[in-house]
# Entry
Amino acid sequence: MTGKDDIEELRRGTIGVYERQATHWDQTRDKSLYERVWLDRLIDGLLSGAAVLDLGCGAGRPIAAHLVASGFNVTGVDASAPMIELARRNVPAARFHISDMRSLELDGTFDAIVSWDAFFHLSPEDQQGVLPSLAGLVKPYGRLMMTVGPGAGTALGTVGGETVYHGSLDPADYKRRLKDLGFGRVELHPNDARVKGRSVLFASEKA
# Structure
């Protein structure tokens, strides 16, 4: 059985897993772009050259690469230095920065932000703290899309055989917080079979 202290240790060690497993991740990550059904919605109506942030971008493939190919000005951020090194090689037309999303310092704002399989590595408490800064990075009328858990709590996953931490708020909490942060429309689509059962949080119509 995994106790509270063990889970906390796993949470603290998640970035280290991605540093050690960067090459394995890049080689084995599904690049079929199964996420496209949601990415298309994220970028629908955006003008060519719009600014898009891929938060927790990993090695840049396939999401940052797809966004660049779609004509957008893409910035990628990841806390794993080896991931960013790979991303710079994989997607040279994008800009990439090494940064923990809990302490983001980025110039400018974005028409859209996507965090696919990344934001949920934060604890629920850290997510509460990060949401206002993310909302502040979204331009008026912009969008924010993230994968989260289907309900409040923690879970464990694996990357390259190593255990990683997942955390989530209650769906109603996400909706309330994002509404309070100025998004006119907030949706949570739990366990969406179109994207391998991911639960997708989509906030739009930013004031």
About this structure: The mean pLDDT is 96. The helical segments are 4-12, 14-20, 22-28, 36-43, 63-69, 81-90, 124-137, 171-180. The longest strand covers residues 138-148. Residues 150 and 161 are 24 Å apart (CA to CA).
